[in-house]
Amino acid sequence: MTMPTFQQITLEGQDADTFLQGQLTCDVSKLGLSYQPTAIANLKGRIQFGIWVKKQDEKQFDIVASSDCMADLLAHLNKFGAFSKFTTSAATEVYPCVLDDDSSSEPTFSHSDEHCDPQAWMARSIATGNYWITAATTGLFQPQELRLHQRGGVDYDKGCYLGQEVIARVYFKAAPKAFLHRVSGTGSTPLAGESLDKIQVVNAITSPDDSTRFEALVVARPEQIADSDLTLLQLPTALQASVARER
Question: With 0-12 CB in 10 A as exposed, 13-18 as middle and 19+ as buried, what is 117?
Answer without folding.
Answer: middle
